[in-house]
Design brief:
By secondary structure, the chain is an alpha/beta fold. Helices cover 43% and strands 18% of the residues. α8 packs parallel to α10 and α8 crosses α13. The chain binds 2-amino-3-ketobutyric acid (AKB). 2-amino-3-ketobutyric acid binds next to loops.
């Protein structure tokens, strides 16, 4: 195995756990993981080194590694960030800035662009009225980018910083011999749903929470209205989209930031699909005004034509296959 390092921050999160397994299976890089938490025992053997602790205090240790690619997943999600906005900004933006500085330094020093993956979100979009959201339907990357949450502000700031570090750092693109700059690539994820992990701190969490509660046989009070609609995606498709974007030749990419979508569901439809497989599930709707407000500010769906055109994005799990083949079977196994 190459000594070139694939660094995964936030490795203990939902995307992180799935990505560690995927990259370990590929065997192209030495995997170094980072998180506040210890790595799950089941993943321990897949990471050659787990750096546990506060990201901002640990970045200095990464300068000794032969970093080839960074998957920067560590972040406060939307609901948690609203409880502590300044801390969220510090981790979400200052943490990303420090890793971009590391990738920029390594790219120039090794004369080889470090690829930098950043998970952005539908939270970069912002609607002020339901009628506006419904009229907009599937939004494209250049419209409605007025986030209403600290998390959304952080995501759009990090997108801009990533583009800056990969194309305009110090305006050195005008130098006679511009330095190698990092290769920044981002995806604006919808709500992600895993059959194997449960979300925490997000606002799209009501979808997976509803299913996991039903599978455990526990009642669930959904914190948004039945008509609340946002896009969702199965975790395997999220991992597929990261692989698709990160393996695409740079010259094929006409953007640095891409929407990716799979299906759009209302909370009421989520309940109906859940009851189909768990008929005894007790699911009620008890909207939380603040979290409802966040979901109302997010789009019903996103337009991912750019991703499909530039790097052949195509989800594997539309809504029926998502429930029937991915979620219900695996979630039953998890709680059996
Ligand atoms: C959240 O709910 O905060 C995230 C997201 C949609 O980015 N899952």
């Amino acid at each position: 195995m190459s000594e070139k390092v694939a660094l995964i921050t936030g490795a203990c999160g939902e995307i992180g756990q799935a990505l560690v397994q995927e990259l370990a299976g590929q065997g192209t890089h030495r995997i170094v993981t980072m998180d506040l938490a210890p790595l799950a025992v089941s993943l321990g053997s897949l990471s050659s080194e787990h750096i546990q602790g506060d990201l901002l205090g640990k970045v200095k240790y990464l300068y000794d590694l032969d970093i080839d690619v960074i998957y920067h997943l560590a972040a406060f999600l939307s609901s948690k960030a609203e409880l502590m906005p300044e801390e969220a900004h510090h981790v979400n933006v200052d943490g990303t800035l420090q890793l971009l500085q590391l990738a920029a330094y390594k790219s120039e020093k090794n004369a080889r662009a470090v690829r930098f993956f950043f998970p952005s979100s539908i939270a970069v979009y912002g609607f002020s009225a339901l009628a506006e959201k419904q009229a907009a339907g599937r939004v494209s990357e250049d419209k409605w980018t007025h986030p209403h949450t600290m998390y959304g502000c952080n995501k759009i700031a990090c997108e801009s910083l990533g583009v800056y570090y990969s194309r305009f750092l110090g305006q050195r693109q005008f130098d006679a011999h511009p330095p190698h700059m990092l290769d920044f690539r981002a995806l604006r994820f919808p709500g992600l749903v895993s059959a194997f992990t449960v979300p925490s701190g997000g606002t799209s969490d009501y979808g997976p929470e509803m299913l996991h509660a039903a599978a455990r046989g526990e009642p669930y009070a959904c914190f948004v209205r039945q008509d609340a609609r946002i896009p969702f995606m199965a975790m395997p498709d999220a991992i597929k989209s990261i692989g698709g974007l990160m393996s695409a030749p740079r010259e094929k990419l006409t953007q640095s930031v891409y929407n990716v979508s799979s299906f759009s569901l209302s909370a009421g439809e989520f309940r109906e699909r859940t009851l189909k497989d768990f008929p005894d599930a007790q699911i009620t709707f008890v909207p939380n005004p603040r979290r409802q407000g966040i979901v109302d500010s997010w789009p019903e769906d996103v337009d991912d034509a750019g991703a499909r055109a530039d790097w052949g994005w195509q989800p594997d799990y539309a809504v029926d296959r998502f429930f029937d083949e991915y979620l219900v079977a695996n979630i039953r196994k998890r709680y059996a």
